[in-house]
Amino acid sequence: MIILDDHPLVRKGIRTVVSSGQSMNVVGEAANAKEALRLLEQTKPDLVLVDLNLGNENGLDLIREARRSGHTCKYIILTSSVTRSELQLAQALQVEGICLKEAFPEDLLYAVESVARGRKYYDPVLMGSMMGEKSRSEEQELSELTPKELEVLMSLGKGLSNKEIASALYITEFTVKKHVSQVLAKLVLADRTQAALYALSKGLVQFEMQR
């Protein structure tokens, strides 16, 4: 097992908890995605515990890159909070587990052992909270977009730049920028990255395992 977290004390605490169990041995620790990818190549672990918020990085990006690189290990996300779009992206990436950092040590051990046995573990407290939130339906959200804005959203989901979107949709870059701003405003998203995650989570574009 590898532990990925940008805080040394947190990594030490997680190692202590995990090492008290019988199913996993910790073979390495990483503070960022680059270190984690190197460890994945070197140790070929069965499981990686991934902090969702890694400073300027997101743990889901590490998982996506590792999947694309052909690593077949399992992943458990550790987090204090998660947005609906992040949860949906985790599901799209087929992440095996999500565990709250506030969970009891025995809960983390249970999550690790469950995933190690081939099961999924999504923290029941987290899932209960997400299910209880009132949110607009997908149809309501997407119906607020014009056809061209929907095309722009799908293009963002594919990771296209403004120049590439302009070329693909036969419009100017200035018009693309206006559409992007409208998409972000209507869907209450902070930036292009969130828009791309949204498009992926809603199935508007398909996640590609290979480059």
TrEMBL record:
Entry-linked SUPFAM superfamilies: C-terminal effector domain of the bipartite response regulators (SSF46894), CheY-like (SSF52172)
Domain HTH luxR-type: 138-203
Residue intervals of the Response regulatory domain: 1-116
Alphabetical UniProt keywords: DNA-binding, Phosphoprotein, Transcription, Transcription regulation
The keyword Phosphoprotein is annotated on this UniProt entry: yes
Annotated positions of the 4-aspartylphosphate modification: D51
InterPro entries the record matches: CheY-like_superfamily, NreC/VraR/RcsB-like_REC, Sig_transdc_resp-reg_C-effctor, Sig_transdc_resp-reg_receiver, Tscrpt_reg_LuxR_C, WalR-like
Membrane-crossing segments per the record: none
Keyword Plastid tagged: no
Pfam families hit by this protein: GerE, Response_reg
Protein name (database record): Response regulator transcription factor
